[in-house]
Amino acid sequence: MQDPELTYYPKDGKRFTEEERKALVKKARPIFLERVSYYAPLMKVAPGRITVRTQKTRWGSCTQDGNLNFNALLLLAPQEVLDSVVVHELCHLKYMNHSKYFYFELKRFYPEYKQAQAWLKENGGSLIKMLPKETLRRKRRRFWLFG
Q1: Buried residues in 89-119 as b, exposed as e (16+ CB within 10 A)
Q2: Sheet with strand 68-71: strands edge to edge
Q3: Using an 8 Å Cβ cutoff, are 113 and 87 in contact?
Protein backbone atom coordinates (compact mmCIF):
# COMPACT_ATOMS: atom_id res chain seq x y z
CA MET A 1 0.00 0.00 0.00
CA GLN A 2 3.10 2.18 0.28
CA ASP A 3 1.50 4.90 2.39
CA PRO A 4 3.90 7.84 2.87
CA GLU A 5 3.18 7.66 6.61
CA LEU A 6 4.72 4.18 6.67
CA THR A 7 8.12 5.36 5.47
CA TYR A 8 9.44 5.65 9.02
CA TYR A 9 9.13 1.90 9.46
CA PRO A 10 12.31 -0.15 9.51
CA LYS A 11 14.44 -0.46 6.43
CA ASP A 12 17.78 -2.08 5.69
CA GLY A 13 17.28 -5.06 7.95
CA LYS A 14 16.17 -3.15 11.03
CA ARG A 15 13.29 -4.44 13.12
CA PHE A 16 10.09 -2.81 14.30
CA THR A 17 9.88 -1.75 17.87
CA GLU A 18 6.88 -3.18 19.68
CA GLU A 19 5.25 0.27 19.52
CA GLU A 20 5.75 0.43 15.73
CA ARG A 21 4.29 -3.07 15.36
CA LYS A 22 1.19 -2.06 17.33
CA ALA A 23 0.87 1.14 15.27
CA LEU A 24 1.02 -0.89 12.07
CA VAL A 25 -1.77 -3.19 13.26
CA LYS A 26 -3.87 -0.18 14.25
CA LYS A 27 -3.31 1.47 10.86
CA ALA A 28 -4.02 -1.78 8.99
CA ARG A 29 -7.44 -2.51 10.52
CA PRO A 30 -9.46 0.14 8.63
CA ILE A 31 -7.60 -0.61 5.39
CA PHE A 32 -8.48 -4.32 5.54
CA LEU A 33 -12.07 -3.45 6.46
CA GLU A 34 -12.28 -1.17 3.43
CA ARG A 35 -10.81 -3.75 1.03
CA VAL A 36 -13.07 -6.53 2.34
CA SER A 37 -16.06 -4.16 2.09
CA TYR A 38 -15.14 -3.47 -1.52
CA TYR A 39 -14.66 -7.08 -2.69
CA ALA A 40 -17.23 -8.98 -0.59
CA PRO A 41 -20.34 -7.57 -2.32
CA LEU A 42 -18.77 -8.10 -5.75
CA MET A 43 -18.14 -11.73 -4.83
CA LYS A 44 -21.53 -12.09 -3.11
CA VAL A 45 -20.04 -13.27 0.18
CA ALA A 46 -20.59 -12.07 3.74
CA PRO A 47 -17.60 -12.44 6.04
CA GLY A 48 -17.91 -12.56 9.80
CA ARG A 49 -15.40 -10.91 12.10
CA ILE A 50 -12.22 -9.44 10.61
CA THR A 51 -9.05 -9.63 12.68
CA VAL A 52 -5.69 -8.03 11.92
CA ARG A 53 -2.49 -8.99 13.71
CA THR A 54 1.16 -9.68 12.92
CA GLN A 55 1.94 -13.29 12.27
CA LYS A 56 5.12 -14.99 11.22
CA THR A 57 3.59 -17.87 9.27
CA ARG A 58 0.37 -16.68 7.60
CA TRP A 59 -0.69 -13.79 5.41
CA GLY A 60 -4.36 -14.53 5.88
CA SER A 61 -6.80 -17.21 6.94
CA CYS A 62 -10.51 -17.96 7.00
CA THR A 63 -12.27 -19.89 9.76
CA GLN A 64 -15.15 -22.33 9.37
CA ASP A 65 -17.38 -19.62 10.87
CA GLY A 66 -16.46 -17.19 8.08
CA ASN A 67 -14.15 -15.02 10.17
CA LEU A 68 -11.17 -13.57 8.31
CA ASN A 69 -7.68 -12.99 9.69
CA PHE A 70 -5.06 -10.85 7.99
CA ASN A 71 -1.40 -10.08 8.59
CA ALA A 72 -0.77 -6.36 9.14
CA LEU A 73 2.60 -6.69 7.39
CA LEU A 74 0.69 -6.80 4.10
CA LEU A 75 0.28 -3.06 4.52
CA LEU A 76 3.97 -2.78 3.59
CA ALA A 77 3.45 -4.77 0.37
CA PRO A 78 2.13 -3.37 -2.90
CA GLN A 79 -1.64 -2.77 -2.98
CA GLU A 80 -2.06 -5.62 -5.48
CA VAL A 81 -0.56 -8.10 -3.02
CA LEU A 82 -2.82 -6.99 -0.17
CA ASP A 83 -5.89 -7.16 -2.44
CA SER A 84 -4.89 -10.60 -3.67
CA VAL A 85 -4.78 -11.95 -0.11
CA VAL A 86 -8.15 -10.34 0.67
CA VAL A 87 -9.76 -11.94 -2.38
CA HIS A 88 -8.06 -15.27 -1.61
CA GLU A 89 -9.58 -15.35 1.87
CA LEU A 90 -12.99 -14.22 0.62
CA CYS A 91 -12.92 -17.12 -1.87
CA HIS A 92 -12.65 -19.45 1.12
CA LEU A 93 -16.14 -18.31 2.13
CA LYS A 94 -17.35 -20.22 -0.94
CA TYR A 95 -14.76 -23.01 -1.01
CA MET A 96 -12.99 -23.97 2.22
CA ASN A 97 -10.21 -25.68 0.28
CA HIS A 98 -7.81 -25.08 -2.56
CA SER A 99 -9.73 -27.03 -5.20
CA LYS A 100 -9.86 -26.15 -8.87
CA TYR A 101 -13.20 -24.42 -8.18
CA PHE A 102 -11.53 -22.26 -5.55
CA TYR A 103 -8.86 -21.21 -8.03
CA PHE A 104 -11.46 -20.56 -10.76
CA GLU A 105 -13.17 -18.17 -8.35
CA LEU A 106 -9.90 -16.53 -7.33
CA LYS A 107 -8.88 -16.03 -10.94
CA ARG A 108 -12.33 -14.67 -11.78
CA PHE A 109 -12.08 -11.89 -9.20
CA TYR A 110 -8.33 -11.41 -9.12
CA PRO A 111 -6.72 -12.62 -12.37
CA GLU A 112 -3.25 -11.33 -11.31
CA TYR A 113 -3.12 -13.48 -8.17
CA LYS A 114 -0.09 -15.46 -9.38
CA GLN A 115 2.03 -12.31 -9.63
CA ALA A 116 1.01 -11.36 -6.08
CA GLN A 117 1.88 -14.86 -4.83
CA ALA A 118 5.28 -14.58 -6.52
CA TRP A 119 5.88 -11.20 -4.85
CA LEU A 120 5.08 -12.65 -1.42
CA LYS A 121 7.27 -15.69 -2.04
CA GLU A 122 10.18 -13.46 -3.00
CA ASN A 123 9.71 -10.61 -0.51
CA GLY A 124 7.54 -11.93 2.32
CA GLY A 125 10.45 -13.21 4.35
CA SER A 126 11.99 -9.76 4.54
CA LEU A 127 8.69 -8.36 5.86
CA ILE A 128 8.50 -11.03 8.56
CA LYS A 129 12.09 -10.29 9.60
CA MET A 130 10.93 -6.77 10.48
CA LEU A 131 8.90 -8.11 13.42
CA PRO A 132 10.37 -7.44 16.86
CA LYS A 133 12.48 -10.28 18.21
CA GLU A 134 10.00 -10.75 21.06
CA THR A 135 7.28 -11.52 18.53
CA LEU A 136 9.42 -14.05 16.69
CA ARG A 137 10.41 -15.78 19.93
CA ARG A 138 6.91 -16.29 21.27
CA LYS A 139 6.16 -19.94 21.69
CA ARG A 140 2.74 -21.44 21.48
CA ARG A 141 1.33 -22.51 24.77
CA ARG A 142 0.26 -26.09 24.90
CA PHE A 143 -2.80 -27.07 26.80
CA TRP A 144 -3.29 -30.62 27.89
CA LEU A 145 -6.74 -31.98 28.49
CA PHE A 146 -7.07 -34.95 30.77
CA GLY A 147 -10.17 -36.87 31.36
Answers
A1: bbbbbebeeeeeebeebbeebbeebeebbee
A2: 50-53, 68-71, 60-62
A3: yes
Ramachandran angles phi, psi of 9, nearest 5° = -70, 160
Whole-model pTM: value is 0.84
Residue partners of 107: CB distance under 8 A and separation at least 6: 113
pLDDT tens digits, one per residue of 41-79: 999 999 999 999 998 889 999 999 999 999 999 999 999
Please give the C-alpha separations between residue 80 and each of 14, 17, 67, 115, in angstroms, as whole numbers.
Answer: 25, 27, 22, 9
Beta bridge partners of 62: 68
Residues 6+ apart with CB under 8 A from 57: none
pLDDT in tens, 87-112: 999 999 999 999 999 999 999 999 99
Structural domains in the chain, sorted by start: 4-131 (3.30.2010.10)
